């Protein structure tokens, strides 16, 4: 009986384990377009479009869990930088693959006719909610992404049931959009949330027609992470 219990404990320990980690504060690089856009001389009436993002048939439900495990510094300041470690865990029974290459420069997949290139990307961005309940959360400036070639399985990491990965990212306590509905306030009870967004980006050039499109693979929000936000003026006074 005791041997059976020990075997069960070891089985659980083997089942749940860290599958990998990435530090995107050190370096990362997004792919650039390999297929050139038509020149104005050859296509004076270029038809360039950006397609409406499409949703894929995949649904992870609650099978994937995203959380912020730590931030540095422990108290962030308005207009200051911070780093955060986020954990993506497979809490379901199926396997999931995620892009896992920090350098995406050479990862674009080119179609046989040479007219289309595509790559998969997963990035993590942050939302910060300060002030009262009616104050909307602010989308922060964030840096870092992971990439994969859709035709090359080796550029992905497969997350087995119970497994997780940790990714270190950089953020700035400033609005990351041209216009933000809310604003950042000093708050001892602010909430930081991470957003995982995984999608396939495609660029197609056919004669004088050029199209960029996006197909969503999966997205999820993290468990809210309590954080203290200090005003910039206080930060400047600290040694």
General description of the model:
- The chain is mainly beta and about 240 residues long.
- It has helices at about 1-15, 230-235, and strands at about 20-25, 45-50, 55, 65-70, 75, 80-90, 95-100, 110, 115-130, 140-145, 145-150, 155-160, 165-175, 185-205, 210-220, 225-230.
- The strands form two sheets. Strands 1, 2, 3, 4, 5, 6, 8, 9, 10, 11, 13, 14, 15 and 16 form a 14-stranded mixed beta sheet that branches. Strands 7-12 form a two-stranded antiparallel ribbon.
- The longest helix is centred in the N-terminal third of the chain and has 14 residues, at about 1-15.
- About 25% of the residues are buried.
Number of domains: 1
The coarse overall form would be globular
The helix/strand class is mainly beta
Order of helices and strands: HEEEEEEEEEEEEEEEEH
For the record, give the distance between the C-alpha atoms at the N and C termini, rounded to a whole number.
60 Å
Main sheet overview? 14 strands, mixed
| Fraction of residues in helix | under 10%
Question: In terms of topology, how is this protein built?
Answer:
Layout: H1 2-15, E1 18-23, E2 47-50, E3 54-55, E4 64-72, E5 75-77, E6 81-90, E7 96-99, E8 109-110, E9 116-129, E10 138-143, E11 145-148, E12 156-159, E13 164-175, E14 187-206, E15 209-221, E16 225-230, H2 232-237
Parallel strand pairs: 1-13, 2-15, 3-15, 5-16
Antiparallel strand pairs: 4-6, 6-13, 7-12, 8-9, 9-10, 9-11, 9-14, 10-13, 14-15, 14-16
Record keyword descriptors for this entry:
single chain, 239 residues, mainly beta, 14-stranded mixed sheet, two-stranded antiparallel sheet, 2 helices, 16 strands, globular, disordered N terminus
